[in-house]
Amino acid sequence: MMGQAIQTDITFRDVSYVLDADICDYFGSIVRDELKNMLAKRITDKNLLRLIGKWLHVGVIEEGRLLLSDEGVYQGSVISPVLANIYLHEVLDLWIKDVVKSKLRGEIKLYRFADDFVVTFEYQEDAKRFMQALPKRFEKFGLKLHPEKTQLIEFGRNAWGKSLRSGKSAATFNFLGFTHYCSANLHGKFLVKVKTMAKRLRRAIKRVAVKCKNNRHKPLEEQFQQLRMSLLGHYAYYGRCNNDFALGQFYRQVEMLWQKWLSRRGRNSYVTWKTFNTKILVKYPLPKPRIYRGLKTSRSQLWLI
Questions:
Q1: Contact, 238 vs 196, CB < 8 A?
Q2: What is the pLDDT of residue 298?
Q3: Phi–psi pair at 284, nearest 5 degrees
Q4: 21 bridge partner residues
């Protein structure tokens, strides 16, 4: 998993700086002519190329309205994620691999999922050079970095050591729904830890609240099964080593929301916490937080689950 790879790499490799980047309106900024040229390098079937060209111009229906545009690719189209990935692979991935790496003093590594990407650097001077070149590279292909959501931060073993000496917290960055931060393991050695992004946690809790409200009049068995699936789905993605506190927060919120909306089924339907815990949860036990994926604790690939 890419999220675990970046966590492990920063923990054990020589990483000093991290670029956490965000592209402004990525799908809407893609230059179609450039995209067609990239596709022509990969695809020799002219009929397929012509079909993709029509797909780019056909538009999408949103809320009953047909939306047409002369720029970018439509996010609602089923082919857009594939085309967008090909575009950024040419613009960013291959550029770093074939051009940038040879010009830098130390190691650089790219972690990308769709248009969400992070770049790590061994040296500050390399990070600054890359930050100067990246906007120019993007501009050639109609792309622009979001000035407020893009940040170059000192991150890693050295940043952690400085934070201990100064008493100030080291910078953090978000990637694929997780906040990455500098910490230590049980033996006091440097370790990159993760926790669910606060915004993602609030969003997940809000979805459960709506589900509990809408389903409050349904049979308890049906409510339980839906909440069970919500919890297991959340654990399956966010159940990573060191994220137990955020998982526990989500579990407790689901419990409280279920008790709250069961108490609002009717005028005389209030369910006390004692009744909820000793009767309802005993019969319908919600799944407790679970860590599904651990972290390599050494280069020998020992896993902590």
A1: yes
A2: 44
A3: -125, 75
A4: 117
Among 109, 64, 114, residue whose Cα is nearest residue 86: 114
What's the pLDDT at 92?
A: 97
The reported pTM is 0.87
* CA–CA dist 192, 86 (Å, integer): 31
**Helices 32-42 and 80-88: crossing angle, nearest 10°?**
80
Closest CA to 123 of 154, 77, 100: 154
Cα 113 to chain centroid, rounded: 8
Q: What is the CA radius of gyration of the chain?
A: 24
Spatial separation of the C-alpha atoms in residues 277 and 285, rounded to whole Å: 9
**Two tokens at 99?**
């051009």
| Percent of the chain as helix, strand, coil, to the nearest 5 | 50, 15, 30
- Amino acid of residue 25: D
Q: How far apart are CA 295 and CA 23, in angstroms?
A: 29
Low-confidence ranges of the chain (pLDDT < 70): 1-2, 58-70, 76, 294-305
Distance of CA 235 to the CA centre of its chain: 15
| b (16+ CB within 10 A) / e for 23-60 | beebbebbbbeebeebbeeeeeeeeeeeebeeebeeee
Answer for the pair 118, 6: CB distance below 8 angstroms, yes or no: yes
Task: Check residue 243 and give its pLDDT.
Answer: 94
